[in-house]
Amino acid sequence: MTARHGPSPALRPRQRHRPRLGPVPPRELWGLHTPGPGSGAGGGERPAAALQVKAAGQAPPELCLRRARARARSTESKTSARRCRGAGQAPPAPPAHRREDTRGGTLCGLRSRPERRSRAGRESGGCRSKGRRGEGLVAAGAKKEGSGEQATESQGRPRAARPGNRAGGSLVAAPPLPRPAGCGWACCRAAAAAPGTSGALLQGGSWSVRCAGNRPAGPGQGLTPDWFQTINHVLDRRHKDLYHGKEAADTLQKQGKTHHIVPCRLISNKAKHQRHPKTYPVLDGRIPSLYQHVFEENLKNSEAVIKRCSELLETVSKGGGENAVLRHTQRNKKLFVRERLKLLLDDEAFLELSPLAGLNMPYGDVPAAGCLTGIGKICGVWCVFMANDATVKGGTIYPIGVKKQLRAQEIAMQNRLLSVYLVDSGGAFLPLQSELFPDKLHGGRVFYNEAIMSAMRIPQVAVVCGSCIAGGAYVPTMAEEVVMIDKISTLFLGGPPLVKAATGEDVSAEDLGGAKLHCQVSGCSDHFAGSEKEAFECIRSVISTLNYEPVPEEVMEHDDPLYSSEELLGLAPQDYRCTLPVKLILSRLLDGSRFQEFKASYGITLVTGFGHVEGHLVGIVANNGELSHDASLKGSHFVQLCSQRSIPILFLQNTAPQTPEPRDIPQAEAHSNRLKAQASMMAAVACAAVPKITIIIGGCFGSESYVMCGRSFSPNFLFLWPNARIALVDSRHLSTLPQAGDSDCARDEAELKQLKEKLEEESSAFYSSARLWDDGVILPQNTRKVVAQCLEITEQQKHQVLSPFQHPVIRM
Q1: Per DSSP, what are the bridge partners of residue 462?
Q2: 699 vs 30, 189, 655, 656, 691, CA distance in Å?
């Protein structure tokens, strides 16, 4: 028995045909070809270069290699035809041996597998041998070794040798490159289209090159560094929007960690949506006759609250009143704030945030909190805008106005949205300085956020549309670029009256801090505009220079719900006792009324599952009763799944009022278990690193509101239906609360009635929205549109190119 070298076959590791990131082969292996003893017709020996490449750990070429070569030949034929036409000659006909490759060069792989096998056996066109895959790859146009005779040509083009005649070409190998995750035909396609390398092929992380045109790859001719630079430039140009940033790629490449950054998006939203078949079960949205009377009661209540909401919105749209608007536009020659937004934003509907803020405040009405905030598109890019309304209290900043600006900045930071400030401010309202100046979330936080946002690479630009006095002057000076308007914009800490009182000097506002002064002397402004219209055109041009790519315009294919959204008015519960099954609401929000439910038979008081809203995949968490122990565990599981899969979550909140306290030990144990399960779901919701959108469709009471991603848990957006109630306890269930036994703590009937009235007033949706406990009141029939808009806004950050450097822009 002869001794075998090495371990037995049973102990040897299994060989896999997979590219290995081994060392770069010596340069002498790149272009050499050594004919074997079987050279010539019918020669059976493999080229030496093929054996050496195999020994060097190169990956065998796959079907992708063959398809990309066919595409390269097609490109080469078109180039040759153009040259012939330019010279007045007839284009050459394709060689007979290339008809199969040209016909089979489809990159989509639509041919069936048996057909591929039969054709491979019938005519193996120079890219697959009868032995192992990849052994016998020959370069077209190479010279035969020994005899010096060139390969047979057809129509003036070199012909690739058959696998049976392996002496007809030379194998050109290249250093292996790491294979990016998800690398497919797109890389081969980019390489095949490289100038001067129409035969360049990429497969499995290694390059295999066929010389283009009539340039044979003779002995000793390898790949030059210029060739690799050309390929890299092609890949960068083709896939520049797929990388996390060129700077990050260059940094990692300098460190020697990788040659390319893995693409972060290889499939468009449209393609992703088409991957999911429309096989989700269809919800039955028909309203049972048993619930018809409840539906009618809810409908009457919804009509009443919507009428009240419309009246408040009409009041807010007038700003500080008709007289104030006339004085602002005619005497001061300025545009009304809503007219400014029409000039600034694209001709599309924008999402206004908290329009009812500032109404019925203890210090009086401040319509829209003295400033308009919202999200709209500028040059196709979603932007957060903050525009002061000088018709409201002369642009004076109130505490509710500071809170509204801080919320807009928070949304910009959460969703990485470009920010635009339209500043026309008279500074802080001094009688309320204790609520404006000293605390962490008071006025100074606006300037802090500007610096942090600049360090986060969130662009900020400003237009000075009027006076900027005292604290309001810091907003434009901390922005990255500023536009000031001649004879309208002024910027100073103290105006002419203060200068007169302090020094006795008379000075005009234009000389003290006008647009020319700050553009020519101080440098606080970067652009000078002759009118407001010119200023907004300038700011749009500035935004176009920010290298801030807009979301690709893709028409998302989606179906409308099978049921009318107008019926949501009858499904909005007037009271918790009037709540109808939440799946009736989902059937009027989701595409095609299709819903893939998760754990449908477990914890049925919480509905969880997946659906699409105008083509956007979203996870649904909806209250369908009291949040029990099983429902909380189910919700915790589902929220973690969405976080793992990077799927946004939509919470439909309608929590139960305060539940009665336990009266015996079994009830106490059940109550404790329910609290522990709710704590588990609360932690899952807080830690879910995906966009979260909360819609309060009914009640928002007690600790269950936290579990359902209430305001304290920082959802990306939170909106209310007009019928919503927000309070610690429901005033209509106040009498069920336990009363203390001590006679000193007893309340009489009048006190209880007064407390109920107070809770009733403070729990309304309008009271909540006036104090910025939410992002606005929306009509039920507009919910689907608003949710889709929010999902599109949150997706914009996926298309941004981020820089690894973290420092703000310091203007002066």
Answers
A1: 421, 482
A2: 73, 56, 5, 7, 22
